[in-house]
From TrEMBL:
It comes from the Bacteria. The keyword Zinc applies. Keywords: Hydrolase, Metalloprotease, Protease, Zinc. The active site is at 665 (proton donor/acceptor). Pfam families: CHB_HEX_C_1, Peptidase_M14. Its cofactor is Zn(2+). This is M14 family metallopeptidase. Signal peptide: none annotated. Residues 383-708 form the Peptidase M14 domain. InterPro entries: GH29D-like_dom, Peptidase_M14. Belongs to the peptidase M14 family.
Length: 815
């Protein structure tokens, strides 16, 4: 039962608590977020609830003593403690007034877990779920198998992957899979397993295995049964069944031997352009980055109320690192607070009271520094994270400001000139363009190696390998190995887990040195389609969040460079954004709104089939290097297999410019035959593993180029037919079958079909083509058009011809 924290006890808190906050001049703690404003924990509707805005909040304390102090004050702590950077995360039930009081006393309250509004929402959801479950329990469910495949990964181990959708969507539905051990064996001789229910944004998607199941024999079919009574049996097909030709003996590969920083990567592609000027060139992108640079800072104090920090106006390497600040206690009583400056040495002469004790507060020192013309020309001062700064400061010896950057002098601190390598025999815009780009996220060290390896293979095999020559002669290839050079440098030399850029958009209450590892923008959330500013999920507007989308769409030069390149060269029809890790192959849409899981418009059925068709070739190319297979369950549209990523670049290029864009996540989980478990590899695996990932996904990038070349050369017209799938006494259900990825446009009233006619849709996510039901005999007229624009039968939809496909679909009595 929650104890009452009344006004008397709040008063006692103010007397008892003086919680120190661990601050170090040499190694500041990394804080994920600054303390949120009170409005984040005091809902606007609080007055309408009996609990008056009470919420369950996260509180970060630096040590066990801090926990003891919370307990001693009678704070209503949940039975939860988790070690985090900077101490422990505790959860506490607090009213808005209690939360603010703790903030005023220096506690770091970093966000709400839940409040009273969830009670009503949860009650409504529960009642709805109970009713749905009761209704479903009385009905036999229908099972729709989506995929049933086996594949081979490292060490020739075979695995089974199955996805099934039940019409009973409640959590009480349990699906079990049984599989045989080969032709003419018992249906369950290979084994049985219970499936996991996959939900996203609170919505049921389908059932699957959490990870593929190891097989002892290759099955021919699986039988899925439901505790609701549903059942389905389907054949098992081979995933990544395409046979790859062995590389020719004179084909050379393996051109990377270490992780490289963005300067090395950029120098590498520049050197390639100089070495192969007839088939490549460097493109200088128009928007220079902020650069690997920071203002210099120093922080003074040990508790929030008496802590302040100073920030140089010049970047550290441009003089900010030469500034020093000293806090001096005069030997006289009743001294006035003053500031003096000599060159770049700033001295704060602290005020004293009648007994010669220091009387200057953090706020007073901040005001004195900002109000002194000579000092304010060098630096700005601020209290700690918006604190009132009422605590007294302590004397401190002269402290040099520092930008804390650790890269050697060979890494320029100036704005970075981003470059792309253009490869092609004819670079005049007449060939189909392909854009390969890597390292949008700084900490993903394998990805730039992947792009470099692909560039090396294309250029060094051009004169010796016929297949490579065909790619270079018939495509226009753009390779950007590092999309986030500043963040990449910071990750290599300062903070290996840096995800974002280095640009600091934080306001003063989040710009203290302890937050320096949390500054920057997530480039893959900074684009203009499906962004957080449009209400889509998967990005943040908090400047210290790992998925901070920036102050506005396309605010970052790195993002604008991508848009410029794909706009400047409209012949670009394909793109691949390479990330790590997890072993995914994904495409648009990449974002949805959590309420109702409203995705960006899905590609039409023909385009979706093209994505799936191409995946077999591309992922077989990945697997050809060392046999590591990408799971079927990690292949598909981004929100179907991963999560919503508001404002990502693949959506930007697809929805704004029609560029067919994929996303790789290199670093597939590796199966350990000893533990019989898949093991994650991480962002920066030992280079032996990182090297293999770069090699296999470079092979995948080559596979993408082969898909693009086939698209460029595609002159084959699609062929389609009507397929009746069900008949009753009063209706006929049919769909269209096409011999390759294509869209079908049709009419049911005997009229001439055009591109404005009804387009065949997907039946549902991963469920195949739409089923069309007729209640009377109809003349079906249709034509198919593939992704390359080839029209079935050379029909002209905008002309007057009648060489479209025709069939009378009858509704008749059975028997």
């Amino acid at each position: 039962m929650r104890s009452s924290l009344d006004g008397r006890r709040l008063g006692r808190i103010a007397v008892v608590l003086a919680l120190p906050i661990a601050l170090s001049f040499s190694s500041f703690p990394v804080l994920a977020e600054p303390s949120p404003p009170a409005s984040e924990v005091a809902p606007d509707h609080q007055s309408s609830t009996e609990q008056n805005g009470v919420a369950l909040l996260r509180v970060i304390v630096p040590d066990e003593a801090g926990i003891d102090r919370l307990n001693s004050m009678g704070v209503d702590l949940a039975e939860y403690k988790k070690p985090v950077d900077g101490g422990f995360e505790m959860h506490a039930v607090l009213s808005p007034e209690e939360a603010q009081n703790l903030r005023d006393l220096g506690f770091n309250i970093v966000g709400k877990i839940s409040d009273q509004t969830e009670v009503a929402d949860n009650s409504i959801q529960r009642r709805s779920a109970v009713a749905a479950e009761a209704q479903a329990a009385a009905e036999v469910d229908t099972l729709t198998p989506l995929r049933a495949e086996w594949f081979t990964s490292l060490d020739n181990q075979n695995f089974l992957s199955v996805e099934v959708k039940s019409s009973a969507i409640d959590a009480a539905t349990v699906l079990t899979v049984a599989w045989d051990s080969g032709k003419d064996t018992a249906p369950d001789s290979g084994g049985t397993a219970t499936m996991s229910r996959f939900t996203d944004a609170g919505q049921y998607m389908y059932h699957r295995f959490s990870s593929p199941l190891a097989l002892t024999a290759i099955p021919t079919q699986v039988t899925i049964t439901s505790n609701r009574g549903g059942s389905a049996t389907v054949p098992v097909t081979k995933w990544l069944g395409e046979k790859r030709k062995a590389p020719k003996k004179h084909y050379v590969a393996d051109f990377v031997d270490r992780y490289m920083d963005p300067t090395e990567v950029t120098n590498r592609i520049s050197g390639l352009a100089r070495e192969f000027p007839k088939i490549s060139q460097i493109i200088d992108l128009p928007h220079k980055t902020n650069g690997y640079r920071r203002a210099a800072q120093a922080q003074f104090g040990t508790v929030a109320a008496s802590t302040f920090y100073v920030t140089s106006k010049a970047y550290g390497h441009e003089g900010g690192n030469d500034i020093s600040v000293a806090l001096v206690k005069p030997d006289t009583a009743s001294a006035a607070l003053s500031v003096s400056v000599s060159g770049k040495d700033v001295v704060v002469n602290l005020g004293t009271d009648a007994s010669s004790a220091i009387s200057s507060t953090a706020k007073a020192v901040v005001d004195a520094l900002n109000g002194n013309a000579a000092a304010s020309a060098l630096l700005t001062a601020a209290t700690y994270r918006g604190n009132a700064g009422a605590g007294l400061v302590a004397a401190a010896a002269a402290t040099k400001l520092t930008d804390n950057l650790k890269a050697p002098a060979t890494i320029s601190r100036d704005p970075f000139q981003m470059k792309a390598l253009r490869i092609g025999k004819q670079r005049d815009g007449s060939k189909v363009g392909v854009f390969l780009y890597c390292q949008e996220h700084a900490r993903e060290w394998v990805t730039p190696l992947t792009c470099v390896e692909t560039a090396e293979r294309l250029l060094r095999n051009y004169a010796r390998d016929g297949e490579t020559k065909k790619l270079v002669d018939n495509l226009d290839i753009f390779i950007m190995p590092t999309s986030n050079p500043d963040g990449g440098h910071y990750s290599v030399y300062d903070y290996n887990m840096q995800r974002k850029t280095m640009t600091n958009h934080c306001p003063v209450n989040a710009a203290d040195p302890a937050n320096r590892n949390a500054w920057g923008v997530d480039l893959n959330r900074n684009f203009s389609v499906g962004s957080v500013f449009d209400g889509y999920s998967g990005a943040s507007t908090t400047c210290t969040s790992g998925t901070y989308a920036g102050p506005a769409e396309l605010s970052e030069p790195e993002a604008r460079n991508e848009v410029w390149l794909t706009t400047q060269y409209p012949n670009i029809k394909f793109a691949m954004n390479t990330h790590s890790y997890g072993g995914y192959f994904m495409w648009a849409p990449g974002a949805y709104k959590s309420a109702g899981r409203e995705t960006l418009p899905r590609p039409d059925f023909g385009t979706e089939n093209f994505f799936w068709s191409a995946s077999n070739h591309i992922l077989s190319s990945v697997q050809s290097w060392r046999g590591n297979g990408i799971w079927p369950g990690r292949t598909g549209p981004i929100p179907d297999v991963l999560y919503s990523a508001a404002g990502n670049s693949a959506d930007e290029h697809w929805y704004n410019r029609g560029i067919i864009g994929w996303s790789f996540e290199v670093g597939a989980d590796v199966y350990n035959p000893q533990t019989k478990r898949f093991e994650a590899v991480g962002f920066q695996p030992p280079f032996a593993e990182g090297h293999e990932e770069a090699m296999e996904f470079s092979s995948g990038q080559i596979g993408i180029l082969e898909v693009a070349r086939e698209y460029a050369d595609d002159r084959k017209r699609p062929d389609s037919k009507v397929k009746v799938t069900d008949r009753t006494e009063t209706s006929t259900t049919f769909t269209f079958e096409v011999d390759g990825p294509a869209n079908v446009y049709y009419t049911l009233d005997g009229s001439r079909p055009t591109l404005n006619s009804t387009k065949l849709l997907a039946a549902g996510m991963r469920e195949g083509s739409q089923q069309i039901t007729l209640d009377k005999t109809s003349d079906v007229h249709w034509f198919a058009v593939d992704i390359a624009g080839n029209v079935e039968g050379n029909y002209k939809p905008d002309g007057n011809g009648n060489n479209y496909r025709k069939e009378k679909v009858e509704v008749r009595k059975l028997g």
